[in-house]
Amino acid sequence: MCSENLVAALRLVVLSAQIAGGERYLVGGLCAGICHNVIDALTEHCAMRQQFGRPLSQFGMVQRHLALAAANLYALESMTYLVAGLLTAQPKRDLRIESAAVKVFATETTLSLLNDCATLAGALGFTDQLPLERYLRDSWVLGSFMGVNDLLRLYIAASSLSIAGREMCEFVDKLRRPYQNKLYILRETFLKDVRLAMMRRRWRTPAVGATPMPVTERGVRASLLVRDHLHHNLRPLGDRLSRVVVHTHELARQALILNANNVNEDQFSLRLFSDLAIGLFAITAVLSRASRAKSIGIRYHNNELELAELFTVDMLDRLETMVANYKTKDNLCKRIASVILKENGYASASPLTRVW
């Protein structure tokens, strides 16, 4: 079956993930502490340091760096809190994929945040007056700690596609035999085109699931519309999130249809699906935390809403661009890499070279 072969070539990755898979989310707590200390130190530095007759904190570029750093830290904390809370409530629950996603997002976000903070600190950031230089030096090992990020990306994508393959196996098998299932293919194609057209024109918010109103374990009928579970200030972002989820689902179906048995060999597609999965998981954690904070009225709840909105808008922009341009970028990368390998190095001529 197509679903049984999705992760056959990645057994070593799955085995290594099983060894420390349940503990990887702890790296998120480590990274959150580092980012928190650095942001506090840089905030004090920007408030005290003066250039051109006024503090650095009054410049727009500095404020932008601080705001994005705080939004990324909020997302990092939200993902770590979510996985830790789920494991506390259900210790036997399998959250290896979520733990790996937290680890990848945490380590890469920490390194990016430290580089941005180094820009604000200037030359002072490389002295021992700020904790930045020590954190920046030590953070490079986080990408390899408890699993290399690139291998974890393959694990996240392959495991997720394996689950999706089991759910869509009947659909994929029928589409791989088009002459025997013409009516089924026409009906599914028509429904997909109608669904995507309605989303593009904002006529309908898609439900993220198979049925509109499932019954939970407690007998409560819960809506599968993301907007119904969010604070009203965050519902437009929930609609955008739903559309990205549907597009990701369509991409997964295309990958399984085109090369169901060899999808784990296309690492360009695996990286795309892993980045989409990590981004969607981060947005889900951020929106749920901010919505709860606003609903129960905890301290700084208005600021949490703005942090969630800033991070979600930025991440959704990246995910939508990723979905729209992935084929072009992947094909360019393949062609450029083939030239580099053929020429045994960087292949480009000087603009001063004469050809006459």
UniProtKB/TrEMBL annotation:
- Superkingdom of this entry's organism? Eukaryota
Q: Which Pfam families match?
A: ACAD9-ACADV_C, Acyl-CoA_dh_1
Record's signal peptide: 1-24
Annotated Acyl-CoA dehydrogenase/oxidase C-terminal domain ranges read 22-159
UniProt keyword Signal present? yes
List the keywords (alphabetical): Flavoprotein, Oxidoreductase, Signal, Transit peptide
Q: Which GO terms describe its molecular function?
A: acyl-CoA dehydrogenase activity
Residue span, ACAD9/ACADV-like C-terminal domain? 234-345
InterPro entries found in the cross-reference section: ACAD9/ACADV-like_C (IPR049448), AcylCo_DH-like_C (IPR036250), AcylCo_DH/oxidase_C (IPR009075)
Asked if the keyword Transit peptide belongs to this entry, the reply reads yes
**Name this protein carries in UniProt:** Acyl-CoA_dh_1 domain-containing protein
Q: Where does this protein come from, organism-wise?
A: Mesocestoides corti
